[in-house]
Amino acid sequence: MQPNVSDKILLGGDRMIGNETLRAQLADEILGGTLSHAYLIEGGRGMGKHLLARQVCAALSCEHPHERMLPCGSCACCEKIFGNKSPDIRLIGKNGKASIGIDDVRFLRADVLVPPNDLAHKFYIIEDAQDLTVQAQNALLLTVEEPPPYVVFLLLCENSANILETIRSRAPILRLCPVAAAPMAQYLTTTQRAFAALSPEERDELVCMSAGSVGRALELLDGRARKPLIEKRRFAAQAVEVCLFAQRRDTARRMELLSAFGSVREEVATKLAMMQQALRDLILLKKYDDAPLIFYADRAEAQTISQRTPIASLNRLLSTTEYTRSRVLRNANIRLALSELLLCDDRTHV
Ligand SMILES: [Zn+2]
Fold this sequence. Notes:
This protein has 16 helices and five strands. By secondary structure, the protein is an alpha/beta fold. Strands 2-3-4-1-5 form a five-stranded parallel beta sheet, with helices on one face. Helix 11 packs across helix 13, helix 12 (251-260) runs antiparallel to helix 16 and helix 13 packs across helix 14 (299-308). Bound molecules: zinc ion.
């Protein structure tokens, strides 16, 4: 039988939410002395890659590592690490460039030979590791393979597929998953006054828009960041309904929608991506009533639309929308691509 994760010590304790299995595994490895000397931490923007990396650094350096809280967060070492004051944590990033090149790695290879200053380990946090050039990755390989015993590498990336297999085979992947809606809402309610001040509908909408990313949710607490996104989502929801339910002859409504899509390529692609998210929700609801939704904050509304529509229509519209978006991204004529989605309709509607 699997041990219950709630009985285990979790890296980051209640300072983090979500990814309990991963955090329990890391706490085990740190307390058991079996931590690897290199990891790839994979996850989308705002998913907590930096925070997890800092927690690993602090847990390995903490002066009270065997208490329930790992790391304790308050000893001198933890304070230095979380206050970004330790010279033994090296941050390597693009610094405004398009990639991390071989010169950065040459510096790192010389630097690892210098023992840590005031911590027991020396940590190299490489941001945007997917943007290390192939040359840089090859140069890094030898050091990742056999680093001095005090060195730990934490490579942060959005997608580990861009990392060479030779590095991936030496640095286990820690994949961060989206945080579920209920714990996210609870976390935001207890830690963020601005969130608690929103209406219940606005809170649901914000949690849904964060797509499981705490960093994204915190950004969206700012109304100026939230408003344009809400408008795009409402537009996408309306576009899905028009495509599914407007009569084929109702060209006026479809033409109106076509104009409202706009002509800025990136924005059109974003609206189409949101339509895809909405359609995935509707398809999932055909199969499971309690499916986790990534687009609709209002489950009852999504269920009504899903029940009204045959699955074949949903699947067909999803594949047409995906195709349209890929054309828009490949520089096709936007109006023409959208016309084919909205006007040249061969779907069977309810
Ligand atoms: Zn500590």
